[in-house]
Structure of DUF2087 domain-containing protein:
Amino acid sequence: MPSEPLPLAIPDLSSFARALSHALQAHLATKPEPPSHVETLNLVARALGQRNHQSLRASLRTPAASRQTAEAPAALSDNARKTLTQFDAEGRLVRWPTKYTVQRLAMWILWTRFEAKRPYTEREVNAILKEANAFGDHVTLRRELINHRLLARKADCSEYRKLPARADDEVRALLHAWRQQR
């Protein structure tokens, strides 16, 4: 199958490089070998705010005018704005939110730190969540990700998986704003 050239514009090179660097570090922390070419394409796509390489290709094939309207973020709700303030400049959750709706939205941001279709050990989940919070309670975060049905685990806690959850409009707007900040 011949390769198809894809025109690629990086709106903020600094945030792209930072996101790609974090993704590569996370990959190398779990696997000693460098990522394959497909994994690299997906890492680049995620650094650009897409789910994977296929969604990046699809978005680049869409005419620019329709892409702008399709990607225009919905106005953030008060809870979504409050959720964004719960994270520091390094993307760590600085405190456990008291309001349930803000907690729920914060879980979605933490959910993005996990790869789909990849099994995690409890130790790996703990390491990701320890890095993702500044208040030192990764256990609560792990439990809440499971309670919100964003992660699943085996009964003996030997394996965790990211669940393919369906985000509502508020969550999609929050995640879009989150990616823009990063």
About this structure: Residues 78-181 form one domain. The chain has a mean pLDDT of 85. The radius of gyration is 17 Å. The beta strands are 151-153, 160-162.
